[in-house]
């Protein structure tokens, strides 16, 4: 079968692998769409310390059940449309014992610490296969990346009418924009890309601030009657925005960090106390988040058209990654199609 492989930093190629055979309790999925995650871009650029090489990337996906291993539940059937929960938790660490599997100490995510799904087929345990009934295969591939933002909004405990700010509106930030509106928030989107801010606005952000030519903290204060946002969600992953979130926060705000910085960050810690802020981390997503996003996309089918930048066949997926690395600000989401050109689910390539 065809598979995309990152063999080393700056080296991505189309390869051939043996078609996997499902072991007992496993399901083989024939992939239809697999999205490139920002973590796949980091892996390609050699900036993802969690990844080992060579690595098949990909954990945002849709497909159909193609084969069942022995002992798989009768609720699964060949041809069923599914996505996959791509996180593998250990089940025994403190987080797992607290029923917080997304924060597992020993988590392995497909395409990062274990082999990913950017291939024609993959096998996973049946416990990771989630049937999807009413979404197109194309839109199903957006469930996982949007779920990361939806999880962050759950962490933020947003109340209706709150003015909240999202720092960084790449894919994760856009999920936050959508999930926060769903909670009734007034969303202010901040980024340094005019293109990404325009997408955030199309998805419902009420105000946008471009950090390249505006003073973000001053604008956030002005837009909130001098108080500052009561919730800030950081999804850019830079030391500057990590600090900005605390600086711009209102008294008693919640600050949620989803981004990963590559370097240590210095804070004015006095503000933690004087503002009595809550600082929260948000990691990955849960099965509940997947279900919430699935219902959201069913009810809001126009969102996917706005989010997806480009769909390429697997034969061009290596070049698409090189293009993304050359111009990250221009692209929100690349989907790789494993379908033949004759049945591309209505999507344009
Ligand atoms: Zn991802
Ligand atoms: Zn664990």
UniProtKB/TrEMBL annotation:
Residues 172-298 form the Alcohol dehydrogenase-like C-terminal domain. GO terms for molecular function: oxidoreductase activity; zinc ion binding. Its cofactor is Zn(2+). It holds the Pfam family ADH_N. Keywords: Metal-binding, Oxidoreductase, Zinc. InterPro entries: ADH-like_C (IPR013149), ADH-like_N (IPR013154), ADH_Zn_CS (IPR002328), GroES-like_sf (IPR011032), NAD(P)-bd_dom_sf (IPR036291), Zn_alcohol_dh (IPR050129). It comes from the Bacteria. CDD domains: Zn_ADH7. Residues 24-133 form the Alcohol dehydrogenase-like N-terminal domain. Belongs to the zinc-containing alcohol dehydrogenase family. PANTHER family: L-THREONINE 3-DEHYDROGENASE. This is Sorbitol dehydrogenase. It comes from Thalassospira marina.
């Amino acid at each position: 079968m065809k598979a995309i492989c990152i063999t080393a930093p700056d080296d991505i190629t189309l390869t051939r692998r043996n078609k996997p055979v499902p072991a007992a309790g496993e399901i083989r999925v024939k992939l239809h769409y697999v999205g490139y995650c920002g973590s796949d871009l980091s892996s390609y650029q050699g900036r993802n310390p969690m990844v080992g090489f060579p690595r098949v990337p990909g954990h945002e996906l849709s497909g159909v059940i193609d084969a069942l291993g022995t002992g798989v539940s009768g609720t699964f059937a060949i041809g069923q449309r599914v996505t996959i929960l791509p996180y593998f938790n250990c089940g025994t660490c403190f987080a797992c014992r607290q029923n917080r599997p997304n924060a597992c100490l020993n988590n392995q995510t497909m395409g990062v610490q274990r082999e990913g799904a950017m291939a024609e087929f993959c096998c996973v345990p049946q416990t990771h296969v989630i049937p999807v009934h009413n979404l197109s295969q194309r839109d199903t591939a957006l469930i996982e990346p949007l779920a990361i933002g939806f999880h962050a909004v759950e962490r933020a405990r947003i109340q209706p009418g709150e003015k909240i700010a999202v720092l960084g509106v790449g894919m994760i930030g856009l999920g936050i924009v959508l999930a926060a509106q769903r909670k009734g928030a007034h969303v202010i989107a901040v980024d340094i890309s005019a293109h990404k801010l325009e997408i955030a606005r199309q998805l419902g952000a009420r105000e946008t601030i471009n950090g390249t030519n505006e003073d973000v903290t001053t604008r956030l204060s002005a837009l909130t009657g001098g108080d500052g946002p009561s919730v800030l969600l950081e999804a850019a992953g830079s030391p500057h925005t990590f600090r900005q979130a605390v600086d711009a926060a209102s008294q008693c705000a919640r600050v949620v960090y989803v981004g990963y910085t590559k370097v240590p960050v210095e804070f004015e810690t006095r503000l933690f106390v004087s503002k009595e802020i809550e600082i929260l981390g948000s990691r990955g997503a849960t099965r509940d988040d997947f279900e919430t996003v699935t219902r959201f996309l069913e009810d809001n089918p126009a969102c996917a058209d706005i989010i997806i930048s480009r769909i390429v066949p697997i034969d061009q997926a290596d070049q698409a990654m090189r293009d993304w690395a050359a111009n990250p600000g221009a692209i929100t989401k690349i989907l790789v199609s494993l379908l033949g050109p004759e049945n591309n689910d209505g999507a344009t390539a």
